[in-house]
């Protein structure tokens, strides 16, 4: 079953955004075109599609300018050897966002878990106090 899940492509705006963030505007455009074909296309898909097309135009314009200036052909989009993205940027702004944002989200989730546990404990304590008071009245 797990293998079947992995074979099913995930087609969401979030995945398209990851493609775009990683330097694959063509893949993002292909995915977004599939998403906007339906009647219930999310507005964010249309916005991201425009953004991806703009990025692709900019990449192509830069490649043409570089070629006109005698620079060697740039590596293909998303290629790890591209000089416009440093290794540090790849690590901190990878497919899962920045490490700072991940830490912030983890702290937020941990706070929510603690708050939930505290609420449950207070409810249980309240019920226990009610039982004790009922027992005192009954004696």
Q: Structural class, from secondary structure content?
A: mainly alpha
Number of helices: 6
The biggest sheet amounts to:
none
Tell me the total number of β-strands. Answer: 0
Structural Rg: 26 Å
Mean pLDDT comes to: 77
Query: Shape, please?
Result: elongated
pLDDT < 50 stretches: none
Percent strand: under 5%
The ordered H/E elements are HHHHHH
Calculate the terminal CA-CA distance, rounded to whole Å: 60 Å
Amount of helix: over 70%
Q: What's the arrangement of secondary structure elements?
A:
Layout: H1 2-7, H2 13-21, H3 25-37, H4 43-68, H5 87-92, H6 99-138
Helix pairs in contact: 2-3, 2-4, 3-4
In words, what does this structure look like?
Helix 2 (13-21) packs antiparallel against helix 3 (25-37), helix 2 (13-21) runs parallel beside helix 4 and helix 3 runs antiparallel to helix 4. With 139 residues, this protein is an all-alpha fold. It is elongated. The chain has helices spanning 2-7, 13-21, 25-37, 43-68, 87-92, 99-138. The chain contains six helices and no strands.
Briefly say what this structure is:
The chain is mostly helical. The protein has helices at residues 2-7, 13-21, 25-37, 43-68, 87-92, 99-138.
Defining traits:
mainly alpha, elongated
